[in-house]
């Protein structure tokens, strides 16, 4: 018996400790994995509730300007009274916080008078010199700025964006930017219908209070704002008589909310719902809970069809960067096709568009590529940049060029 015991190999203590350590690590990893799955399942459950879903979609409580006063635009780098903060009231009694931004050359010409006015939030913008410079100048142009999800009118790259918008004609191009309901200092909570009412309120102010005709108004939009812009332009184009603006510049758009959530990843690395696309039944079930659809692909097609049918001139420029990790740039060629397809009563097939792209697309090398689709009534332009990320692109010269290209197409005499 002792001989048998002697034949059984013994393991060193450090091997036994190693096995125990592996087992312990495996146990902790299993617990963490189970916790992650549980948290993810809880997150998906919360997404089906309207309130939580709104916070995830709009990110309206993430201001990114907590330590600055939005009623003191000078703290964001503007000149004294270059920006006039004021409120617009919607038909459902929400108050929208807005900025009217003077172009720098116009400001220079009237600097002394502007310096004499009090600073900060104004109760009656029509009494201010900046407003009169907008309303009383028959050559003035106005850009209605519709920002993306999260933040406020003063957040991140939006301030450099305002400068890029007016840089082509710094004596004539005013900018009106505003926070949707629930954002920044604006009251209420965002919903698709509510945000569209906000956009309608701003457009109505521009036309009827500021007195700027639609032909001198351009809509600039980025990310979520592109969905708002397309929807409001379509709404006005469907009116009788139709109202069509000088044009629109859409940066980093998406085809619709459902497609976006199926491709979106936080910081380009942490997917939100894309893992569920492997389970079509579950993913389709979750899609049914998406409250705000923001179907830009359908609305842009309706907009184009309406203008083609009515013989109205229209200009659309869609811009996206290939390194955008928030909204994949693949959304833009798809949205471009929906717009192009609507220009013909018989439709334009993807293969046909692909052939046209290979023939007429301009390769700009490191600057990206450009393609235009022209009809008797409209111009639909697609610009794909190699770089620019999701927000940085807004301060690029391509934005200034897009604005001037549209304004000059409407009025060739509008030059520096």
Helix and strand topology:
Layout: H1 2-7, H2 13-47, H3 50-58, E1 83-89, E2 95-101, H4 104-109, H5 111-115, H6 129-135, E3 141-146, H7 158-166, E4 173-178, H8 192-209, E5 217-222, H9 224-237, E6 247-251, H10 257-263, E7 265-266, E8 270-271, H11 280-287, H12 296-310, E9 314-321, H13 331-341, H14 350-360, E10 362-363, E11 369-374, E12 378-385, H15 397-410
Parallel strand pairs: 3-4, 3-5, 5-6, 6-9, 9-12
Antiparallel strand pairs: 1-2, 2-4, 7-8, 10-11, 11-12
Give structural notes.
- The protein has helices spanning 2-7, 13-47, 50-58, 104-109, 111-115, 129-135, 158-166, 192-209, 224-237, 257-263, 280-287, 296-310, 331-341, 350-360, 397-410, and strands at residues 83-89, 95-101, 141-146, 173-178, 217-222, 247-251, 265-266, 270-271, 314-321, 362-363, 369-374, 378-385.
- The chain is an alpha/beta fold and 416 residues long.
- The chain folds into two domains: 10-58; 73-283 and 294-410, Rossmann fold.
- A hairpin with a 3-residue loop joins strand 11 (369-374) and strand 12 (378-385).
- Helix 7 packs parallel to helix 15, helix 8 (192-209) packs across helix 9 and helix 12 runs parallel beside helix 13 (331-341).
- The protein starts with a helix and ends in a 6-residue tail after the last helix.
- Residues 143-305 form the AB hydrolase-1 domain.
- Keywords: Membrane, Transmembrane, Transmembrane helix.
Describe the structure concisely for a colleague:
It comes from Phialocephala subalpina. This protein is an alpha/beta fold and 416 residues long.
């Amino acid at each position: 018996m002792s001989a048998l015991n002697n034949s059984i190999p013994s393991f060193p203590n450090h091997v036994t400790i190693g096995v125990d350590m592996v087992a312990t690590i495996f146990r902790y990893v299993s617990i963490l994995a189970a916790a992650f799955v549980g948290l993810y399942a809880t997150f998906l459950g919360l997404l089906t509730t309207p309130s939580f879903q709104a916070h995830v979609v709009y990110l309206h409580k993430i201001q990114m300007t907590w330590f600055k006063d939005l009623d003191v635009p000078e703290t964001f780098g503007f000149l004294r009274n270059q920006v006039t903060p004021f409120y617009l009231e919607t038909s459902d009694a929400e108050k929208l916080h807005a900025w009217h931004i003077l172009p720098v050359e116009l400001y220079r010409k009237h600097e002394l008078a502007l310096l004499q006015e009090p600073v900060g939030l104004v109760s009656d913008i029509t009494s201010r010199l900046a407003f009169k410079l907008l309303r009383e100048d028959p050559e003035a142009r106005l850009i209605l700025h519709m920002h993306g999800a999260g933040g406020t009118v003063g957040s991140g790259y939006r301030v450099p964006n305002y400068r890029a918008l007016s840089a082509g004609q710094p004596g004539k191009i005013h900018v009106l930017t505003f926070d949707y309901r629930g954002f920044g200092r604006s009251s209420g909570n965002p919903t698709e219908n509510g945000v569209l009412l906000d956009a309608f309120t701003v457009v109505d102010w521009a036309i009827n209070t500021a007195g700027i005709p639609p032909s001198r108004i351009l809509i600039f939009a980025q990310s979520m704002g592109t969905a708002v812009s397309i929807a409001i332009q379509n709404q006005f184009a469907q009116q009788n008589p139709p109202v069509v603006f000088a044009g629109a510049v859409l940066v980093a758009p998406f085809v619709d909310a459902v497609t976006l959530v199926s491709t979106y990843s936080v910081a380009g690395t942490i997917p939100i719902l894309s893992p569920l696309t492997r389970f079509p039944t579950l993913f389709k079930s979750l899609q049914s809970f998406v409250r705000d659809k923001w179907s830009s692909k359908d609305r842009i097609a309706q907009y184009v069809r309406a203008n083609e049918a009515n013989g109205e001139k229209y200009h659309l420029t869609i811009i996206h960067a290939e390194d955008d990790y928030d909204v994949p740039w693949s959304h833009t060629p798809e949205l471009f096709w929906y717009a192009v397809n609507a220009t013909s009563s018989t439709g334009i097939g993807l293969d046909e568009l692909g052939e046209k792209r290979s023939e007429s697309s301009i390769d700009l090398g490191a600057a990206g590529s450009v393609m235009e689709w022209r009809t008797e009534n409209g111009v639909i332009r697609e610009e794909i940049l190699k770089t620019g990320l999701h927000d940085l692109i807004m301060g690029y010269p391509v934005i200034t060029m897009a604005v001037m290209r549209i304004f000059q197409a409407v009025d060739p005499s509008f030059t520096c």
